[in-house]
Amino acid sequence: MAEFLFEYGLFAAKLGTFVVAVLLVIAVSMIASRRMRQSSKGHIEVSRVNDEIESMRLALDAGVSDPDSFKQHFKYRAKQEKSKRKERRKALKQALKHGAAEDAAGNDRKRVYVLDFNGDLRAAAVSALRREITAVLSIARDGDEVVVRLESRGGMVHAYGLASSQLQRIRQQGIDLTVSIDKVAASGGYMMACVANKILSAPFAILGSIGVVAQLPNFHRLLKKHDVDFELITAGDYKRTLTVFGKNTEQGRKKFVEDIEDVHRLFKEFVAEHRPQLDIEQVATGESWFGRRAIERGLVDELITSDEYLVEACASADVFEVRFVEKKTLPQRIGIVVENALDGVLLRWWERGLFSRFLS
User: Fold this and answer.
1) How far apart are CA 267 and CA 126, in angstroms?
2) Nearest of 132, 112, 122 to residue 180 by alpha carbon
3) Top-level CATH class of 111-209+287-325?
4) Which of 124, 176, 289, 313 could make an SS bond with 145 (beta carbons 3.0 to 4.6 A apart)?
5) Burial status of residue 7 (CB atoms within 10 A of its CB: 0-12, 13-18, 19 or more)
6) Diameter of the chain measured on Cα atoms
7) Which of 177-191, 217-231, 338-352 has the lowest mean pLDDT?
8) Residues taking part in catalysis
9) pLDDT digits (tens, 9 = 90+) for 132-143
10) What pTM was computed for the model?
């Protein structure tokens, strides 16, 4: 019996030590994770588009060319590049003595910064966009350009108003802003696009929808049928105009319509301010158009895809893709997946109703 108790006590001590060790590791990990989140919310990543295009070209060239011919050609190009780098280093060394290092290094070549904005109903991507713009504006020079590849069906007015204001920062600093739309920039998406110096569109991208929509169900009669009371207490005549569960009044309904119409007027004024060449009354009907029709109405300036535009830009400029990568915890990542899935379902049904007439 004594031996059994000794063995049991030894086992319990080992188990307790193991549990304490595991808890200690978990606690240390949580503290480190918390400190990491507090110290940095994310970071900027930059990739040179010129290098990516050249890498793809070389890979294809290697696959279709004669191996010996490609090898010789590759060696020749590598030798040329080495010679150019040597000349640049020599010029930089000489320029350092005269305080003109920037010009000698070839930094006067135009730079094009590429940002991506994929908008949802809440324009959540503005969180990254504002940081990307801040980073770009900290080094952008006269003659540089910012290209925003924009995809959005629109959403909340205040959210897209903030996103538009972020793009205005680029214009206010005197940097050329180009917005490229490959698929859709409707409603709040077009509110952002109209800020640009130049709007590009793929031929069958959907643009416009300069209008405002608001809808909500009302369960008052259902609740009344089942003898369920709903109390809504407000201070102020128009604190609540239309409600989901209460009885809606003509006065409240009229005020709600007035508010919607005022938002539409603000939307039209904003677009007209940035694109004065538009016949705003003709295009601000809530309708959407394909790129081929949108250019006729002045909603866009050129029919071209973002790929074609950036490839052309690489011939005369250094093109950089800039992304803000945010660190997210596991619960946040799971929440984003669930939220995106719900948004996807809602948007899919919305698209079926709104764009059904565009389907071939």
Assistant:
1) 19
2) 112
3) alpha beta
4) 176
5) exposed
6) 98
7) 338-352
8) 187, 239
9) 999 999 999 999
10) 0.75
